[in-house]
Amino acid sequence: MSTIAVVGTGYVGLTTGAYLAHLGHDVTCADVVPEKVERLNNGEIPIVEPGLDELVHEGRREGRLKFVLGAANAAAGAEFVFLAVPTPQGEDGAADLRYVKEAAGQISPVLQPNAVVINKSTVPVGSARMVEEALGRSDVFVVSNPEFLREGSAVYDCLNPDRIVIGARHQEAAVRVGTLFQKLQAPLIITDPASSETIKYASNAFLATKISFINAMANVCEVVGADIREVSLGMGYDKRIGFEFLKPGPGWGGSCFPKDTKALISIAEDAGYDFAMLRGVVAVNDAQYDYTTAKIRDAVGGSLQGKTIGVWGLTFKANTDDLRDSPSLYVIDRLVAEGAVVKGYDVTQTNAHAPKHPTLDSVQIEADPYAAVEGADVLAVLTEWDEFRWLDFEKVKGLLNEPTVVDGRNLLDGAQLRRKGFTYRCVGRP
Ligand SMILES: NC(=O)c1ccc[n+]([C@@H]2O[C@H](COP(=O)([O-])OP(=O)(O)OC[C@H]3O[C@@H](n4cnc5c(N)ncnc54)[C@H](O)[C@@H]3O)[C@@H](O)[C@H]2O)c1
Q1: Residue 378 in 3-state DSSP?
Q2: What's the pLDDT band for 356 if we cut at 50, 70, 90?
Q3: How far apart are CA 328 and CA 156, in angstroms?
Q4: Is the CB of residue 378 less than 8 Å from the CB of residue 405?
Q5: Which of 37, 30, 45, 87 lies closest to 255 in space, CA to CA?
Q6: Which atom of ligand 1 is nearest to the CA of 150?
Q7: Model confidence over 242-278: pLDDT tens digits?
Q8: Ligand 1 centroid, distance to 342 Cα (angstroms)
């Protein structure tokens, strides 16, 4: 078992630290936010991620998982140091590597000889080199190990990965990193750092492409009178296509796809290639936010001015509290810009620790889903929380000004709602 430091205790870092401790390693996680470290040391989990609290509590109880302030305090004496710091979108669309550089600078003086620094943050091609330079140490190794977890099922994904990718210039370092994961059953791909870094962007760009494609197909279905559910079922049985990521919605978002698609466009552009196809994928997605907004506008009679919209779902997907680049918030921005009043409810936004987002200032946040539809002209479902399917729709009908639902996720039982007298519109289906 190894001594590991994890720099950054966000969605990736905290999950990584917790599951590596679960695998038996001795893990110290670091963050720069004192409040976060304090809460973690008090046994509080600052994010919503199913199963994470059990893993963190197990690691703390068994003395294999600690939390400290500052990267250097975790990295001193560690054999492996994972970097799981943010790589947000910079002003020009490229990934902003400032946090990665900062973290490398902080750990450099304390790294023990032969330590392996493992980059889990999503970073452009060439970043392993950049980390080597920022470290300025010829006696340590730098390895790329991109993360593929999905928020909402991060713990499951880490313990059951589809594959583990390691990009290294030195075989010895790659093998040492591979042994950290030896208890997991997954194909191990050992490659060069540039290919490893590219695998991550290519994977996210491909998944975003799949969603943009099915959203565009849903829009086609609406105009030709086909049903996207039947269409995606018929497509999904083809093994070359598969069922995953063939669900239409209000557009994709979240902490990764928007910034990673733009970063890949920027990486290609810098290298002299115009990734027109991926630009198209992003454009289709932006249009989908507009299209969803138009559907809500139509549902209230053609103008949003002065209308009240009850929104269920604010997070970018279900089972997370993450609001970063949430499609729901992009649609809400558009509704508010056209003069609507928005009342919103989300399963996790009633959590006092949930992160704040500027769009929420323009939303009347309600503590329960019924309050969000009271006096509203339409209910818009924008995140696929399962809880929404089981609510009392007779009550909802009585609270709405008009019994109208725009289901941006094809979540609810449309036939049942229509039987109850609702006007129901969804995505790509009659
Ligand atoms: N969130 C995902 O679903 C996901 C999936 C795969 C890959 N990634 C990638 O992983 C990286 C991290 O993403 P995230 O969602 O976990 O970010 P996050 O914002 O949730 O967490 C990052 C954490 O790092 C901390 N931090 C920043 N600088 C630090 C430093 N010098 N020392 C210690 N802590 C520091 C921040 O305070 C924060 O708590 C990004 O590159 C992202 O693209 C994210």
Answers
A1: strand
A2: confident
A3: 25
A4: yes
A5: 87
A6: 3
A7: 999 999 999 999 999 999 999 999 999 999 999 999 9
A8: 31
Ligand 1 pocket at CB < 6 A: 7-13, 30-33, 36, 71, 84-87, 99, 102-103, 106, 120-122, 147, 149, 151, 255-256
Establish whether 256 is a catalytic residue.
Answer: yes
Rounded to an integer, what distance in angstroms lies between the CA atom of residue 277 and that of residue 404? 37
Residue with tokens 């289901």: 407
- Looking up tokens 């910079």 gives 90
Give per-residue pLDDT as tens, 276-302.
999 999 999 999 999 999 999 999 999
> What's the sign of the alpha-carbon dihedral 250, 246, 281, 84?
positive
**pTM given for the model:** 0.95
Number of Cα atoms under 13 Å in the Cβ half of residue 168 = 23
**Residue 238, CB half-sphere, CA atoms under 13 Å: how many?**
7
Mean pLDDT score of the chain, rounded to an integer? Answer: 96
**From 9, 12, 52, mutation site for ligand 1 pocket: most ligand atoms within 8 A of C-beta:** 12
- Side chain identity, residue 382: L
CB neighbours of 21 closer than 8 A, spacing ≥ 6? 27, 55, 58, 59, 62, 64, 65
pLDDT at residue 349 is higher than 80: no
DSSP 416-428: HHHHTT-EEE-SS
Q: Is the pLDDT of residue 355 over 90?
A: no
How much of the chain exceeds pLDDT 90, in percent? 95
Q: Which atom of ligand 1 is nearest to the CA of 122?
A: 41
